[in-house]
Amino acid sequence: MTTNRRHVLLLGAALSVSLMTTACSSPGDGGSGAAAPPSASATDLQAALDAGGSITIWAWEPTLKQVVAGFQAKYPKVKVNLVNAGTGNDHYTALQNVIKAGSGIPDIAQIEYFALPQFVLAKSVTDLTGFGAGRLDGTFTPGPWNSVRSGGGIYGIPMDSGPMALFYNKEIFAKHEIEVPATWEEYIAAARKLHAADPKAYITSDTGDPGFATSMIWQAGGKPYKVEGTTVSVDFGDAGTRKFTSAWQQLVSDKLVAPIPGWSDAWYKGLGDGTIATLVIGAWMPANLETGVKAGFGKWRVAPMPQWESGGKATSESGGSSLAVPEASANKALSYAFLKYAGVDEGVQTRLDAGAFPATTAHLASQTFQDKKFPYFGGQRVNQVLAESAGQVVGGWSYLPYQVYANRIFNDTAGKAYVSGVTLQDGLKAWQDASIKYGQEQGFSVR
For residue 380, is it within any domain? Predict the structure, then answer.
């Protein structure tokens, strides 16, 4: 995931209300839920490649340029038009607009995991089961694979993943004789020790981030969202949520996290000068540190995500995208053939060579991948830690079918805990109430 993509995710860019209205008031649009999904055999896919044609892809992910070049070299009769219609909000708004207009719709669209449920519910993307996606069980790590599945259908092919890990400044830890924390209790103790030794230094920064909060709750075993079609429930009173809030509240209340927004100039500076000593973040972060925090060269390392119980092996995901085929695509067989090339076959290695982090189990298990040494991280084999995390993602997580909107209102609700006397738990209750209210207004059955 690029810096821009993550920045947009943190801002919680929203799809317009009309997408949700379409999802709830026009269940027949884009095909009846009872209709059999389209299908094509391997022979059909090969025939489509041999016949050739033109497909249009809307995506912002930079390594897809190399993937498209490789695909066209292998299948010269196929012309791929790769269009950057914007990132996050701009991309989704443009996509929703052409779907509503019924013209100009791309054959393939990049859709982040947290946003995909909205398009699935609106019946705007194709169930890929009949094209062979149903045979891909075991191809991808649990987090991304679960994120593209809904109600027995498969609505995207994972492009990348963001299993979480602890990125830490080894130089700062050594200077203040701080051990790498294996649990969140140890992490809080490290935060206290660091800030006491240097009041200008913080264990991390946090000003309120919906993606981080939900990933932490996910790791803690929380399941605040339950989704069955247009019936959803939102409950931040569960044990996993409370586990997170009781721990993180200590850091917020005692001012042990830097009040610096992620991806800001001050944030990059803090990562470079050691005043922000750790990040708990997705596996796509190494490239961002290498390019954005050059002053940290040789100082940073990667360790497993701290655990809620000593000896635990539970992680969660942060970020990542799929490639989906809009329901209105006129060339679905050729589109799926590209998805398979990009997400399962040769295109995966092309993206890895360009700096992406895979969602495929075979590539994650590859000795070459795991043995890669990162000079920025002092020669550490970073991928070994990240690949292990990918296999430990807690199952059963769901996003709301209007998660993009929910993320946008996080700072107006839960975010108040960072700037006032409101507790994180009460802030999440306010987020819950606002999310329920919005869902009901859009025609969802929310409890």
Answer: no
DSSP string spanning 274-328? TSB-EEEEETTHHHHHHHH-GGGTTTEEEEEPPBSSTT---B-B---EEEE-BTT
Stated pTM of the model:
0.85
Residue 340 belongs to a domain = yes
DSSP state of 36: P
Domain extent at residue 225: 164-317+395-446
CB atoms within 10 A of CB 371: 10
Segment 420-442 shows an average pLDDT of 97
- The 8-class DSSP code of residue 166 comes to E
Is 297 domain-assigned? yes
Name the more confident of 295 and 25.
Answer: 295
Residue 114 has pLDDT above 60, yes or no: yes
* 106 and 203 housed in the same domain: no
Extended beta strands in 208-297, E state: 225-228, 231-234, 257-258, 278-282
Find out whether 146 and 397 touch, Cβ atoms under 8 Å: yes
CB 179 within 8 A of CB 275: no
Q: Compute the distance between CA of residue 412 and CA of residue 390 in angstroms, rounded to an integer.
A: 32
Q: Which amino acid appears at position 226 of this protein?
A: K
Q: Which pLDDT score, from 0 to 100, does residue 354 have?
A: 81
Number of folded domains that form the chain? 2
Task: Let me know if residue 339 belongs to a domain.
Answer: yes
Strand partners, 55: 80
Whether 331 and 360 have beta carbons less than 8 Å apart is answered as: no
Q: What is the CATH number of the domain that holds 177?
A: 3.40.190.10
Q: Is 209 exposed, middle or buried (0-12, 13-18, 19+ CB in 10 A)?
A: buried
Mean pLDDT across the stretch 114-140? 94
Average pLDDT over residues 298-312: 98
Distance of CA 387 to the CA centre of its chain: 16
Query: Both tokens of residue 394?
Result: 């807690």
- 267 and 140 in one domain? no
What rounded mean pLDDT belongs to the chain?
91
Taking 80 as the threshold, does the pLDDT of residue 314 lie above it? Answer: yes
